[in-house]
Amino acid sequence: MVEMLEEEQNDLPGSLKIEENRPPILRFGLQEPMQIGNLVLSSRFHLSPLAGYTNLPMRQTLRELGGLGLATTDLINAKGLLMGSRKSLELIATQQEDRPLAVQIYGNDSNEMVQAAQWLENYGASVIDINMGCPVRKVVKGGGGSAMMCDTTGAVIRLVEKVVTGVKIPVTVKMRLGWDDSQLTAPYFAREFEKIGVKALTIHGRTRAQGFHGKVNRAGIRAVVEAVEKIPIFGNGDIRTITDAEQMFTETGCAGLAIGRGALANPYIFQQLNYWWHTGEPLEIVGYEAHLNIMRIHVQRLIEWRGEKFGCIQFRKIAPWYCRHLRTGKPIQQMLVRLETWDQFLSIDQQLRDLGTPKDWHHHSRNEIPVPAGPISHW
Ligand SMILES: Cc1cc2nc3c(=O)[nH]c(=O)nc-3n(C[C@H](O)[C@H](O)[C@H](O)COP(=O)(O)O)c2cc1C
Q1: Closest listed residue to residue 272, CA positions, set 236, 237, 242, 235
Q2: Does CATH place domain 2-279 in 3.20.20.70?
Q3: Low-confidence residues of the chain, pLDDT below 50?
Q4: CA 314, CA 301: separation in Å to the nearest integer?
Q5: What's the CA-to-centroid distance between 9 and ligand 1, angstroms?
Q6: What global pTM score does this model have?
Q7: Regarding beta strands 39-40 and 35-36, do their DSSP bridges make them parallel or antiparallel, or are they unpaired?
Q8: Pocket flag, ligand 1, residue 206 (CB < 6 Å)
C-alpha cells in the first residue's frame, strides 16, 4: 500500500522524478552541487527579490514545488531593521523550512550595514545579500543603492568589505550592469568584490537607466563572469522558459540563474528548470488546475500570515499577475483585485474551476509581465 502510494505520488503531474543516485551531468562544465562559499545549494535556480511579493507565504509556496535552491527576502532597510521597524520585522518573518534564506539589505552607512548583517546572522539568515540597485531617491542621493555603481573611488568596496568581515555567513551582492551605457561598472565591482571575499553575485543584465526596457544584455553579464576568477554569478533578467535559461547559461557562462517575475508568472518554473537541468528533458506539463491550486494555497498562506483582511489586501497586488497567467479575463480580475474574504476567494476559485482550462492556455506564460511604475521600474 505504502509502495503504491509512493508510486502514485511520483506520477503526479509536475512531480520531480530525478533518480537519486544519478551521476552529476556537469552541464555546461559547471560543478555540482552549486555552492555559495560553504553553503551547498540544492539547485542553481534562485528566487530574485521582488519587493512587495517575496514574503514568507510566497517563498513557502515556491519552495514546496521544488527546484528552488535559494530564496531571498524583499529588500530591507538596514537602519529600519536596527530600529526594530515593524515593516522590516514583518519582511524577515521566516520559519525552519524557509532555508536557505538570503536577506537582502541596503544602506550607505557601513556601521549600520555591519550591525544589520550581524543581527540577521544571529536571527538565522543563511546569506546576506547587499543591494546595489536600490533606486529610491533618498538612498541614491546619499550615495547608496544604485548610485553605488557610480562610485569607483573604493568607498563602496570598503563598505562591502566591512560587512564581509563582520559576519561568518556568506555575503553576496546584487547589481545591474551599471548606471548607464557609458558607465558599465559591474565587471570592475565584481572583480573587486571577489578579492574582498564576496561569495556570489547576481547580475540583472540591464543598466539602471534602462529600467526594464529593452533586451537583457547577455554579453554584459558575460563580461562580469569573465571578470571574476571563481565565484558564481547568477544571471538575471527575463527568464521565463527552458530556452531562456539555456541561452543565459550558454551565452554568459553564468553558474546559476535568479528568477523574479518569471516565478510570479509560473510558480512551477524552478521545478521545471531543475528537472531539465538534471535530465536534459522538459518536465511533464503541469495542468491548469495545478496552477489554480497554487493560487489557492498562496491566498491561504497570506491569510494565515496577516489575517483575513490584510492577507486579502496583500493578495490584491499579486492578483493581476495570476490573472494574466491563468487568463481569467477582466471580470474575475476585477473581483480578485478587490478581494475581501476567504469565502469570496473560494467562490471565485470555484468559478474558475467550473470554466475549465482556457483555450490555448499554456503552462508557461510568454505574456509580458508589467512592472509597476515608480521606483520599482529601476530595480
Ligand atoms: C516588483 C519588483 C520588485 C523588485 N524588488 C527588488 C528588490 O527588492 N531588490 C532587488 O535587488 N531587486 C528587485 N527587483 C528586481 C528583480 O529582482 C530582478 O532583478 C528583475 O525583475 C529582473 O529579473 P526578472 O526578469 O526575472 O524579474 C524587483 C523587480 C520588480 C519587478
Answers
A1: 242
A2: yes
A3: 1-15
A4: 11
A5: 34
A6: 0.90
A7: antiparallel
A8: no
